[in-house]
Design a protein that fits this description.
Length: 370
C-alpha cells in the first residue's frame, strides 16, 4: 500500500497532517477473536487463547471459527464507518453504533472490504506467511454469498461480540486499556516535536516514509493507494491483539491505522540481561571453549599443556584462551617465564546469579505466562 501526501498538506516533513487517536474496545475485541481462532499463529497469546477456547461453549467456539474472516476485515471496516472522531468510546456505545448501521451503509462498507480483498490483495506477499491461510478471501464467489445478507451477518456477529465481551473480554479489556491510553498520550505528545519519518516509523516499522515526504510505503499485502489531504482524518488505533500485524484502511476521507501498542512490544521482547552475561554465554556457546573451561576448572595449565591434553593445536587453544580471558571466564597467572591459565570460579558463580535474576517486566495476568 502507498500513502500519498497531497502538496497542500506538506511542510517538508508531512507533520501538519491532522491526526487523531482512538482506543476502541470493539476493534480490539475483533482482533482478539481473530487471535482466538488461530492460536498457533500468535504465540504470545497462546496460553490465553487455549484456556479461553476451553471455557467457551462448543457452539460459540464453532461460530467464532466460522466467522473469523470477518473479524479481520469486515468488522474493522464497520467500526471505522460508525465511530469517526471519538477518541475513547465505551464498548456498548460502539456496539450500538455498529448494530445501528443502515442497510445502505452496511452494503457500501461490505463492497469496500470485498473490493480490497478480491482486487487489491497481493498474492506474492502472502506466500509463506500467515496470510496464506486466508487466501480464500480473494475469491469473489466467497463474498457473493453475503452480498444480500449483510444485515443478518451484522446481527449474528453482534450477538457473538456482545456475548464474548460479557463472558471473556471485559476483564481482559480492563487489564489493557490503561496501556492503550498511555500509548495515545505518548504518541500524541511527540507528534509535533519529532521528525515525521521517525515518528511514523516508531508507530510501526512497516511504515516507511520517503525522504521527500510525498509518499509512504506501507508494508501490508494490499496494493492500494490513498491520498492524504488537509481534510483527511487520520486515526491511529493502538492495539494489543493486532500483534504482530498492522492494519491500514482508507475509506473516503478517512485513513485508519491500527498498530502495535508500545506495551505489547515490551512484553514480546526478550527479557533484559547484563551485557557481561550475554558475552559470557556467547563465549561458552562454542564447544571447544566450553571444553577448555571445564578442563581448567580446579586446575591450571599452559597453552601447550592444554593443547596436549585436549589434542588441539596450540594456535587454536591460544585463540580461545584470549577470548575466554577477555570476558573474565579464565584468569592468567604469570609464573616466571610461563603463563598459567585457570577457570575463574567467581565468574561462573556470577553467571548463575545473573541467570537467577532474569526478570520480565510485569505483563497482564490474562496472558497466563506465570
Amino acid at each position: 500500500m502507498i500513502i500519498q501526501f497531497a502538496p497542500a498538506s506538506q511542510s517538508h516533513t508531512a507533520i501538519n497532517i491532522p491526526v487523531d487517536f482512538q482506543v476502541s474496545p470493539l476493534r480490539e475485541l475483533g482482533w482478539a477473536l481473530h487471535v482466538l481462532s488461530r492460536p498457533s499463529h500468535h504465540g504470545m497469546f497462546l496460553n490465553w487463547a487455549l484456556n479461553t477456547r476451553q471455557r467457551l461453549a462448543p457452539e460459540m467456539l464453532d461460530s467464532i471459527d466460522q466467522r473469523t474472516p470477518f473479524f479481520l476485515g469486515w468488522l474493522q471496516t464497520m467500526i471505522q464507518g460508525s465511530q469517526r472522531g471519538v477518541r475513547f468510546p465505551c464498548f456498548f456505545d460502539e456496539w450500538e453504533a455498529y448494530m445501528g448501521l443502515s442497510s445502505d451503509h452496511l452494503g457500501t462498507l461490505h463492497q469496500h472490504i470485498q473490493h480490497r480483498w478480491t482486487q487489491n490483495f497481493d498474492l506474492r506477499m502472502a506466500r509463506n506467511s500467515e496470510w496464506e491461510s486466508v487466501l480464500f478471501l480473494t475469491d469473489s464467489d466467497w463474498w457473493s454469498q453475503w452480498n444480500a445478507k449483510v444485515e443478518s451477518l451484522r446481527d449474528h456477529l453482534g450477538w457473538l461480540i456482545k456475548k464474548f465481551w460479557e463472558q471473556v473480554f471485559e476483564d481482559v479489556w480492563n487489564e489493557i486499556v490503561q496501556h492503550l491510553h498511555d500509548d495515545v498520550a505518548n504518541r500524541a505528545a511527540t507528534h509535533k516535536t519529532e521528525d515525521a519519518p521517525f515518528w511514523w516509523h516508531a508507530i510501526s516499522p512497516r511504515l516507511r516514509m520517503e525522504r521527500d515526504a510525498e509518499s509512504m510505503q506501507v508494508l501490508v499485502p494490499w496494493t492500494t493507494e490513498f491520498t492524504v489531504t488537509p481534510t483527511t482524518l487520520v486515526t491511529f488505533c493502538p492495539s494489543v491483539f493486532c500483534w504482530p500485524h498492522l492494519w491500514v484502511n482508507g475509506w473516503q476521507s478517512h485513513l485508519s491505522v491500527t498498530y502495535q501498542s508500545q506495551a505489547v512490544r515490551c512484553w514480546a521482547t526478550p527479557v533484559s540481561a547484563p551485557a557481561r552475561l550475554e558475552r559470557r554465554l556467547e563465549a561458552l556457546s562454542e564447544p571447544t571453549r566450553l571444553l577448555i573451561v571445564r578442563h581448567l576448572f580446579g586446575s591450571v595449565g599452559t597453552t601447550g599443556t592444554i593443547a596436549h591434553a585436549l589434542r588441539l593445536s596450540a594456535g587454536t587453544v591460544s585463540r580461545h584462551l584470549t577470548l575466554l580471558h577477555s570476558v573474565g571466564l579464565v584468569d592468567r597467572i604469570a609464573m616466571g617465564h610461563y603463563v598459567l591459565y585457570q577457570t575463574n570460579r567467581g565468574a561462573l558463580q556470577s553467571m548463575g546469579v545473573d541467570l537467577q535474576n532474569l526478570e520480565r517486566s510485569p505483563v497482564p495476568s490474562f496472558l497466563r505466562w506465570e
